[in-house]
Description:
Layout: E1 12-15, E2 20-32, E3 35-41, E4 57-63, E5 66-72, E6 74-78, E7 83-89, H1 95-102, E8 108-112, E9 116-119, E10 126-132, H2 136-145, E11 151-157, E12 171-177, H3 180-188, E13 197-204, H4 205-218, E14 226-232, E15 241-242
Helix pairs in contact: 3-4
Amino acid sequence: MTSETIAPRQVHRVRHEIKRRELQVARVETLSPQMRRVVFHGEALADFVSASYDDHVKVFFPTADGAVARDYTPRRYDPAARELAVDFALHGDGPAADWARQVRPGQPLTVAGPRGSFVVPLDFDWYVLVGDETALPAVARRLEELPAGSRAIVRLHVAPADRQALSSAATLDLQWLDSDESLLDAVRALQLPAGHGYAWCAAEAGVAASARRILVDEKGHDRKAIRAAAYWKRGAIAHHENLEDQG
Length: 247
C-alpha cells in the first residue's frame, strides 16, 4: 500500500513477515533508576521494519526451563547502523526484569516481529496520549515522530524518579501524574480541542479500559479514532490485549 492510496487521516494496518533475529547487545543505557535501554545490533536487522510507534516485538529471554517471550516496543531503529533500541522497566521480578538488570554488551538474544503495524497518520489536528510507565517508550517515540504544527496532549502516570525528558516538534501539553486515579481524573478533566483528533491509551487493563470509556462515552470522542491497549493486567503474566472493540 502506497501513500497515494491512503486517504487523509485514514488509519491502516500493515502486515509484516514474521522473522526471528539472532542479535547481540551493543550497549546498555540507564534512563532512570527503574528503566534501562538496551541497544541490539546485528546484520539480521537489515530488513527490520517498524512502521508504527506502538509496534511490538517478541523478545525471548533465557530461563532454566528454556526461553520465555515478552512483548516490547521498538523504541528506535537505525537501519544504517543495524541497531534496535528497546526500553526495559526493572520493576518486580521475572525473566525480563532479571535479564535487563544483569545485561552486558556482547550478550546474545533473540527478537521476533513485529508481525504488523497499526499506522496512525501524522495529519490529525491533535493527538491525545494516555498511559503509564509501560507506555512511555511508545509515547516518547510518537512525540519524536510528530511534525511541527501538530498538537499533542499527553497524560502519564510515571513515578517521579522514572520520568524522562520528552522531545517533540509538536506543541506539547504534558502532565505527569502520581497514580492511576489521578491519571483518570486528568483524562476526565480534558477539554478536547476542535478539529479531528486521535486518542491513544495504554496502561494496566482496567485503567486503559476506563480511559477509553471516559474519552468515548463521556466526552464523545469518535470510537473509530482511538486505540486502547492493556499492556499489563494485575495478577496476570505477559498480558497484552487490544481494547478497541469494547464499548
